[in-house]
Amino acid sequence: MSRHQSPRAVGHSASPPDIPAGGRGIEESAWRVWMRDLGRRQRRLREFLGLSQEQLARLAGVSQGALSRLETAKGLATPLLIILKINAVLARELRKLDPALVSTELRDAIELQAALSPSGDALGFKDLPLAQDDRIEELVRLYRGTPERHRAGLLSVVRAMALGLSKTLPLVLAGLIA
Question: Is the pTM higher than 0.70?
Answer without folding.
Answer: no
